[in-house]
Amino acid sequence: MIKVPAEPSRHRVAVWRELRRIGALLLGQGVWAVPDVPVFADGVSSALTLAEQAGGQAMALNATGRGPEDAARFQALFTAARSADWAEFLADCGKYEAELAMEIRTAKFTLAELEEEEQSLERLRRWHRDLTARDVFGAPEAAQAGKRLKECAAACEDYAARVFRALHDR
User: ChrB N-terminal domain spans which residues (predicted)?
Assistant: First the structure.
């Protein structure tokens, strides 16, 4: 539970960003929730520290539902949020592959472009790793996301081979 002074707003935004970064669910005004597993501990601690440094009040509680249906409801909400994250990831995989296809269509085979595409692939890999760590209940899209990441890596390898061929054939 977090309460941060309204001004300056940068403090509220910093706390909000930290909680969103770790995948916390906003349950109500100032009330956030994550499963009680180690992957969230550092992020929760960081959000609490940010709130207190801003002159706010912060409290971490361990809570359980009143019955199994509450636990199931929380799990469904949390998994739905991860599904949305995975959907965004999958869309970015599509954008990445479209970018590579455009570079191939326009024959833009430069080392600078290859480096940029490799950095984009590394960003996808980090994002996949972060989402996998947060997806503690196993959203159905996770398997497809792993497959798509491998396809992106293969497409990048193909593009790299084309770049090197173009550079060596000149």
Answer: 12-169
